[in-house]
């Protein structure tokens, strides 16, 4: 395409992936405009960005909204919105994607590519114990590793495959990241739980105990920096040889919480202690008053406590019973060379960013100040 001729429609624009993507697109000359679908006010501003409100459930209202708000010029869809729970049985996220693409087609939009994010739940990580012989989970051939449905990831993928086979003019791609590390106030954010839990331990004078099962403390895991994920989705959208397929993606390393935990404790300036399983979903809400006091003490941003703690997701994350990681060879062979990050550095980077944004206290800076 010619410079400044690409127009992105980004759903879930205020979420962890959406915010990272918006910041990246704004700085790329080839993207002339971004239609950002979000209900809450976006913290990113640019003359390129137009925030739009769409009813993704009502096809007629959606078509009308797209027609009136720049839909006919859209060349790329990045479907990052999510609705549902940890079971992945709610099909709403898939239905939204299908509704959007079909509406754009009817409007005659010059649609070229559709991207959507899946995740580790494609392989059933949310269902509990699995046969370790299947790990690392492989994304080749397509549809490998599926469990007994329902799982809306399968609906998305099957729909995209069928549409292309029937002659759709656009191509598609998808990634399957595990835990995504980055800033947002949306659902399923591992970083924010670590940040909130570590701050509470620091302020209450408690050591940083791993709050999950002792077994999960030592299993192998993976995650991905949201900025790396954003680079990957843009690379996929711009690489025809990689189109019409799904890819595992991660930082590039594997980690055990037992290896990462001392680095996290060091950032907060507290000691570690042996793991102690805590029912986070019932324990974390009891510290809302404490968090208010912390927020006032350090003049932090007034963000709802439940948006930060996210105990239900965290409880699942820290109780993974067995090794849980994917094989990313397919993405590397396709040509994407970004998976070169150390997870320890990623967590430290984002804890520093949260401190910079006044979401948690800047403990490293406070220690430095105290030493001078």
Protein architecture, described:
The protein has helices at residues 16-26, 59-68, 92-106, 152-165, 190-203, 226-237, 257-268, 280-283, 288-298, 305-309, 311-317, 329-334, 343-356, 363-371, and strands at 6-11, 31-37, 49-52, 76-79, 113-117, 171-177, 179-181, 208-209, 220-221, 223-225, 245-249, 255-256, 272-273. By secondary structure, the protein is an alpha/beta fold. The strands form 4 sheets. Strands 3-2-1-4-5-6-11 form a 7-stranded parallel sheet, with helices on both faces. A two-stranded parallel sheet has the order 7-10. Helix 2 (59-68) packs across helix 3 (92-106) and helix 3 packs parallel to helix 4 (152-165). The longest helix has 15 residues, at 92-106. The model has no long low-confidence stretch (mean pLDDT 95). This is PRISE-like Rossmann-fold domain-containing protein. Residues 73-361 form the PRISE-like Rossmann-fold domain.
Entry summary:
The chain has 372 residues and is of the alpha/beta class.
Main pleated sheet: 7 strands, parallel
CATH hierarchy: architecture of the largest domain: 3-Layer(aba) Sandwich
Query: What does the average pLDDT come to?
Result: 95
What is the share of helical residues?
A: 25-40%
Name the CATH superfamily assignment of the largest domain: NAD(P)-binding Rossmann-like Domain
Total count of domains: 2
**What is the CATH class name of the largest domain?**
Alpha Beta
Low-pLDDT runs: none
Structural class: alpha/beta
Radius of gyration: 21 Å
Strand order of the largest sheet: 3-2-1-4-5-6-11
Strand content: 5-15%
CATH topology of the largest domain: Rossmann fold
The coarse overall form would be globular
Question: Helix and strand string, N-terminal first?
Answer: EHEEHEHEHEEHEEEHEEHEHHHHHHH
Count of helical stretches: 14
Protein name: PRISE-like Rossmann-fold domain-containing protein
Pfam families: PRISE (PF22917)
GO molecular function: oxidoreductase activity, acting on the CH-CH group of donors
């Amino acid at each position: 395409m010619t410079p400044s001729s690409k127009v992105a429609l980004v759903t879930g624009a205020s979420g962890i992936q959406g915010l990272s993507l918006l910041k990246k697109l704004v700085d790329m000359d080839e993207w002339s405009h971004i239609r950002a679908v979000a209900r809450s006010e976006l913290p990113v501003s640019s003359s390129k960005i137009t925030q739009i409100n769409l009813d993704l459930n009502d096809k007629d209202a959606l078509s009308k909204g797209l027609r009136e708000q720049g839909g006919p010029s859209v060349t790329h869809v990045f479907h990052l919105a999510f609705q549902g729970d940890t079971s992945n049985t709610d099909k709403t996220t898939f239905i939204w994607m299908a509704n959007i693409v079909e509406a754009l087609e009817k409007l005659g939009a010059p649609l070229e590519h559709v991207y959507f994010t899946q995740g580790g739940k494609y392989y059933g990580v949310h269902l509990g114990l699995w046969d370790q012989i299947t790990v690392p989970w492989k994304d080749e051939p397509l549809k490998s590793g599926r469990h007994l449905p329902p799982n809306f990831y399968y609906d998305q993928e099957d729909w995209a495959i069928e549409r292309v086979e029937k002659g759709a003019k656009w191509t598609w791609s998808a990634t399957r990241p595990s835990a995504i590390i980055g800033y947002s106030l949306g659902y399923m954010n591992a970083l924010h739980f670590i940040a909130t839990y570590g701050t509470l331990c620091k302020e209450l004078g408690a050591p940083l105990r791993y709050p999950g099962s002792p077994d999960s403390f030592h299993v192998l895991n993976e995650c991905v920096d949201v900025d790396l994920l954003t680079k990957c989705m843009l690379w996929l959208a711009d690489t025809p040889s990689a189109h019409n397929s799904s890819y595992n993606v991660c930082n590039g390393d594997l980690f055990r919480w037992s290896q990462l935990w001392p680095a996290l404790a060091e950032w907060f300036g507290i000691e570690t202690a042996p793991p102690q399983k805590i029912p986070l979903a019932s324990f974390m809400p009891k510290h809302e008053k404490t968090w208010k006091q912390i927020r006032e003490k350090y003049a932090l941003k007034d963000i709802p406590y439940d948006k930060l703690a996210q105990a239900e997701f965290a409880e699942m994350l820290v109780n993974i019973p067995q090794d849980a990681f994917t094989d990313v060879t397919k993405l590397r062979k396709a040509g994407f060379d970004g998976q070169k990050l150390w997870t320890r550095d990623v967590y430290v980077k984002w804890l520093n960013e949260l401190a910079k944004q006044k979401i948690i206290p800047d403990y490293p800076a406070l220690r430095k100040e105290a030493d001078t």
